Prior knowledge:
Elements: H1 2-28, H2 31-40, H3 61-79, H4 81-88, H5 93-107, H6 110-124, H7 126-129, H8 138-141
Amino acid sequence: AVVVTDAFSCVVLILGAAIICISGLSEVGGVGALKEAIASKSWTQDHLTLLPPADHSHYPWPAVVLGLGFVLGPAYWMGNQAIVQRTLGTRSAAEARASYVFCAAIKMFFPLLLVLPGLIGIVLLEKELGSPGETWDGNRVLP
């Protein structure tokens, strides 16, 4: 029952995020229009940079990759009891390995599904948000 519930919630969450991304992109005018709109703002110059310089003052990517990829990632996958119990509940070692590979493949798309709505929100809610540095009233931008 837990596996069916997890599979259903996974499909619903990924489908919902994909629908938000697709409808947001169509509202903005596509990927090209999103890139242009983000690049045209003076305070979003790094928003579309995948790998900033290694000595970037706010986001040094080697620290992020080493910290998240090699320290926190394995600790999460091996120490989270919800994941471990589901792995131990499989019928064979091959199924357990396949479930980890499948989950890793799904997690490759999560950054896109998490970051893209934020970038779309910057473009669509520009007037409501105001300028960066000023206080943003959450009641004006959230339903």
